[in-house]
Structure formats: C-alpha cells, structure tokens
User: What shape does this take?
Amino acid sequence: MKIAVMGAGAVGCYYGAMLARQGHEVVLIGRALHVDAVRSLGLRLETADFDQRIKLAASTEASAAKGAELVLFCVKSTDTEAAGALLAPWLEPQALVLCLQNGVDNADRLRGVLPQEVAAAVVYVATEMAGPGHVKHHGRGELVIEPSSGSGALAQALAEAGVPVEISDNVRGALWAKLILNCAYNALSAITQLPYGRIVAGVGVAEVLRDIVAECVAVAEADGVRLPAGLDLAVRRIAETMPTQYSSTAQDLARGRASEIDHLNGYILQRGALLGVATPVNRVLHTLVRLLERKHAETAA
Assistant: This one.
C-alpha cells in the first residue's frame, strides 16, 4: 500500500522505514534538512539487529500524501489541527489516518478537521533522530490500535513488517496509561538531561515517580478512565527496557525546540483542575520544563 508519514520524526521514520523494508510505498513528510538527506542517501535505520539505508520518498509538502491509503500521523500535539488542515485537501476519502502521537486527545482533535477515518494508537518505542536522515532504535516498538474498518489489514501489514501490534477496545485506557508513563519520565529526563536508566538510580526518584503516578491515576479515575492492570509494573519496566533512552521532551529541549509538556503533565493539571483533583507534583514538573523552554528560547534569541 502507499503510506504517508506526516511529521517524519523519530517515531514516524521508524515505523515508515519498517513498512518500507517490507515493500510498501512510503513517503516521509518532514523538515527540509531531513528530507534532503533522505532524498540524497536514503533513510538510515540503525537498530540492534541491523543498520540499513532504505530508499523511500520524502517531501516537505503535505501534498505528497495524495493517493495514500494509510497516513501515520506523527506531528507534535501542539500542531495537530494545523497539520490535519494541511493534509485535508490531499487525502483520499477512504484513507485511514493512524494517530501515533503523545497525549490522549489528539485523535478526537484530528477528527474535528478531517472527514476521513481516524484511529488512535498507543506507541511504545524508544527512538531518536541521530542526525538528518538517520533514525536510531533503542528498544521495543509495539503498537496498540483501536478498532476501525482497516484495523485488521493494518495489523497484518505491521506484523509482517516486524512491528508487534494489538487491536484493543480500550485504547482510551491504554492512551492514559501511556500518558502516565510520559508524565512519570519525560519531565524528569528533560530537566536532568538524563536517560531513564540513570534517572531511576537517583536518590528519592522512586518516591517522586510514585507521587507523579498517584496524581495521574487520581485524575484518570475521576475522569472515568478504565486503566489497564499492572500500571506500576509498566512504570518500572520503562527504565528496564529503555535504559539509554532520553524522553522526547528531553530531546526537544536539547535541540532548543518547544516540547509537548502542555499535553503531558500540563494535561494532567488541566483535567485535575476541572475535576477537582490536586496535582502539585505534576504542576512543579510542568512549570520547570516551561521555564527551561523559555531559557533556551532567550538564549537562542
């Protein structure tokens, strides 16, 4: 099938490259520097099992999605509506848009600007852009997707490409579980500029993680979310399965870019305020990351 990756960063490039290796026609839509590198040399996908350059198309324009049967939607949460509006004129009526974003409300926001079918997905992968046209995979890679008219065929294509996938009728709960994992680790990794394995080795960190998670769970329960079992184990496993991974928020700050913190710990603050649940630990983390963003912006200026 023809597949477009809208927002070809580390996550989109990883899944796009895996599908391209299986023979699908993939086009990456992203930043000019990255696009130029992919056009010139192909996309380098570096994993523990192989290091390969993969030839695929790349463009800076949303029009490259024309004719795509599947769109992997991977832009930052702050850009959801704007990127959806750019895509809208070029999408086929029967196209499936798979939301591979952080946060819990992006699929709903995207449905507000696209008439095509939109399916939410939960992503568990450790990746980074090691340079223009170079994505590095550090671990995991599974997807949990919600049921849709194309979910069965999509799950088969992903499985054949080496991507573990599950179709779940509780994607909202899974998205919230992923949000809680992000709230636990992303800000701490960004503030300290440390990978997950080194974070959890710090004095007092276990207690801080416990407090973050407890606040998030309280908000989720007040919001009527059915969280999956084993959340505490999942939080511990992140550091065990991705010890060298820096959070996406840490990577954004290191590159001087605005992060998605408003849609992570900031979202917990927002929902907590609406639902009458106190979230002081998440408030501190959100505030510190926003201060660091401002510092980097002032330094760059």
Observations:
- The two ends are 44 Å apart (CA to CA).
